[in-house]
Amino acid sequence: MTHPKKEIVLERLASTRHALFELLQSLDEAAWQTQVYADGDRWTVLDLLRHVSVSEKSMTLLMENIRRGGEGASAEFDLNRWNASQVRKQQEKTPAHLLADMEANRRDLLTFVDSLSADDWEKQGRHGSGRVMSIYEIVKLIGLHEKTHLTDIQATVG
After folding, report:
1. What pLDDT score was predicted for residue 58?
2. Phi, psi of 5 (to 5 degrees)
3. Confidence bin at 1 (pLDDT 50/70/90)
4. Res 39: pLDDT
5. 1 occurs within a structural domain
6. Which of 28, 38, 41, 144 has CA atoms 20 to 30 A from the CA of 68?
7. Domain count, the chain
8. Which residue range is the domain that position 31 belongs to?
9. Model-level pTM?
10. Distance in angstroms (rounded) separating the CA atoms of residues 133 and 9
11. Phi then psi for 7, rounded to 5 degrees?
Protein backbone atom coordinates (compact mmCIF):
# COMPACT_ATOMS: atom_id res chain seq x y z
CA MET A 1 0.00 0.00 0.00
CA THR A 2 1.17 3.51 -0.73
CA HIS A 3 0.05 7.05 0.02
CA PRO A 4 -3.45 7.72 -1.35
CA LYS A 5 -2.32 10.93 -3.10
CA LYS A 6 0.86 9.49 -4.63
CA GLU A 7 -0.47 9.42 -8.19
CA ILE A 8 -1.81 12.98 -7.93
CA VAL A 9 1.54 14.27 -6.69
CA LEU A 10 3.42 12.37 -9.41
CA GLU A 11 1.11 13.77 -12.09
CA ARG A 12 1.66 17.32 -10.83
CA LEU A 13 5.42 16.78 -10.80
CA ALA A 14 5.27 15.52 -14.39
CA SER A 15 3.05 18.29 -15.73
CA THR A 16 5.05 21.06 -14.08
CA ARG A 17 8.33 19.58 -15.29
CA HIS A 18 6.98 19.30 -18.83
CA ALA A 19 5.89 22.96 -18.82
CA LEU A 20 9.22 24.09 -17.35
CA PHE A 21 11.29 22.16 -19.91
CA GLU A 22 9.11 23.37 -22.77
CA LEU A 23 9.70 26.98 -21.72
CA LEU A 24 13.42 26.57 -21.02
CA GLN A 25 14.09 24.80 -24.29
CA SER A 26 12.52 27.72 -26.17
CA LEU A 27 14.86 30.34 -24.68
CA ASP A 28 17.56 32.07 -26.67
CA GLU A 29 20.96 33.07 -25.29
CA ALA A 30 19.80 36.51 -24.14
CA ALA A 31 16.79 35.14 -22.28
CA TRP A 32 19.01 32.97 -20.06
CA GLN A 33 20.64 36.16 -18.75
CA THR A 34 17.34 37.92 -18.01
CA GLN A 35 17.10 38.95 -14.39
CA VAL A 36 14.11 37.30 -12.69
CA TYR A 37 14.34 38.83 -9.22
CA ALA A 38 15.18 42.47 -8.56
CA ASP A 39 15.91 42.04 -4.87
CA GLY A 40 18.13 39.76 -2.83
CA ASP A 41 20.49 37.73 -4.98
CA ARG A 42 19.16 39.17 -8.28
CA TRP A 43 19.03 35.79 -9.96
CA THR A 44 18.83 35.40 -13.73
CA VAL A 45 16.82 32.69 -15.50
CA LEU A 46 20.02 30.62 -15.64
CA ASP A 47 20.62 31.11 -11.90
CA LEU A 48 17.06 30.00 -11.21
CA LEU A 49 17.67 26.86 -13.27
CA ARG A 50 20.81 26.21 -11.19
CA HIS A 51 18.74 26.62 -8.03
CA VAL A 52 15.88 24.36 -9.12
CA SER A 53 18.29 21.64 -10.22
CA VAL A 54 20.20 21.53 -6.95
CA SER A 55 17.10 21.93 -4.79
CA GLU A 56 15.39 18.80 -6.08
CA LYS A 57 18.52 16.72 -5.56
CA SER A 58 19.00 18.05 -2.03
CA MET A 59 15.35 17.50 -1.07
CA THR A 60 15.56 13.90 -2.29
CA LEU A 61 18.64 13.38 -0.10
CA LEU A 62 16.82 15.08 2.79
CA MET A 63 13.89 12.68 2.43
CA GLU A 64 16.25 9.71 2.36
CA ASN A 65 17.69 10.96 5.65
CA ILE A 66 14.21 11.31 7.15
CA ARG A 67 13.16 7.85 5.97
CA ARG A 68 16.20 6.36 7.75
CA GLY A 69 15.12 8.06 10.98
CA GLY A 70 17.19 11.23 10.69
CA GLU A 71 15.96 14.60 11.86
CA GLY A 72 16.32 16.24 8.45
CA ALA A 73 18.00 19.64 8.24
CA SER A 74 19.73 20.90 11.35
CA ALA A 75 18.04 23.61 13.41
CA GLU A 76 20.91 25.97 12.49
CA PHE A 77 20.52 25.47 8.73
CA ASP A 78 20.35 28.76 6.78
CA LEU A 79 18.34 28.09 3.63
CA ASN A 80 19.07 31.44 1.98
CA ARG A 81 22.81 31.10 2.49
CA TRP A 82 22.75 27.51 1.23
CA ASN A 83 20.72 28.44 -1.86
CA ALA A 84 23.13 31.25 -2.75
CA SER A 85 26.18 29.03 -2.25
CA GLN A 86 24.73 26.25 -4.39
CA VAL A 87 23.96 28.64 -7.25
CA ARG A 88 27.55 29.94 -7.09
CA LYS A 89 28.90 26.37 -7.20
CA GLN A 90 26.94 25.70 -10.41
CA GLN A 91 28.23 28.76 -12.30
CA GLU A 92 30.25 26.80 -14.86
CA LYS A 93 27.35 24.60 -15.94
CA THR A 94 25.61 25.34 -19.22
CA PRO A 95 21.84 25.25 -19.63
CA ALA A 96 22.16 21.90 -21.43
CA HIS A 97 24.19 20.45 -18.55
CA LEU A 98 21.70 21.76 -15.98
CA LEU A 99 18.74 20.32 -17.90
CA ALA A 100 20.52 16.95 -18.00
CA ASP A 101 21.16 17.23 -14.24
CA MET A 102 17.46 17.94 -13.72
CA GLU A 103 16.48 14.85 -15.69
CA ALA A 104 18.85 12.71 -13.60
CA ASN A 105 17.60 14.29 -10.38
CA ARG A 106 14.00 13.57 -11.37
CA ARG A 107 14.83 9.93 -12.10
CA ASP A 108 16.40 9.72 -8.62
CA LEU A 109 13.33 11.33 -7.04
CA LEU A 110 10.94 8.95 -8.82
CA THR A 111 13.06 5.94 -7.83
CA PHE A 112 12.96 7.17 -4.24
CA VAL A 113 9.17 7.70 -4.36
CA ASP A 114 8.64 4.22 -5.80
CA SER A 115 10.66 2.73 -2.94
CA LEU A 116 8.52 4.31 -0.20
CA SER A 117 6.35 2.11 1.98
CA ALA A 118 2.97 3.36 3.16
CA ASP A 119 4.51 4.24 6.54
CA ASP A 120 7.44 6.10 4.98
CA TRP A 121 5.17 8.77 3.48
CA GLU A 122 4.22 10.04 6.95
CA LYS A 123 7.72 10.11 8.46
CA GLN A 124 8.65 13.63 9.46
CA GLY A 125 11.79 15.71 9.63
CA ARG A 126 12.93 19.29 9.39
CA HIS A 127 12.97 20.84 5.94
CA GLY A 128 15.59 23.49 5.16
CA SER A 129 12.92 26.14 5.76
CA GLY A 130 12.80 25.06 9.40
CA ARG A 131 9.32 23.54 9.07
CA VAL A 132 8.80 19.97 10.21
CA MET A 133 7.26 18.17 7.26
CA SER A 134 6.31 14.65 6.24
CA ILE A 135 7.97 12.99 3.27
CA TYR A 136 4.64 13.36 1.45
CA GLU A 137 4.67 17.11 2.10
CA ILE A 138 8.24 17.43 0.85
CA VAL A 139 7.48 15.52 -2.37
CA LYS A 140 4.50 17.82 -2.87
CA LEU A 141 6.70 20.85 -2.10
CA ILE A 142 9.17 19.88 -4.83
CA GLY A 143 6.40 20.28 -7.40
CA LEU A 144 5.11 23.50 -5.86
CA HIS A 145 8.64 24.91 -5.71
CA GLU A 146 9.21 24.16 -9.38
CA LYS A 147 5.79 25.60 -10.30
CA THR A 148 6.56 28.82 -8.42
CA HIS A 149 9.82 29.31 -10.27
CA LEU A 150 8.22 28.37 -13.60
CA THR A 151 5.64 31.11 -13.02
CA ASP A 152 8.40 33.59 -12.13
CA ILE A 153 10.32 32.78 -15.33
CA GLN A 154 7.15 33.00 -17.43
CA ALA A 155 6.41 36.44 -15.97
CA THR A 156 9.91 37.58 -16.89
CA VAL A 157 10.52 36.12 -20.35
CA GLY A 158 7.03 35.15 -21.44
Report:
1. 97
2. -105, 10
3. low
4. 77
5. no
6. 144
7. 1
8. 6-157
9. 0.93
10. 16
11. -65, -35
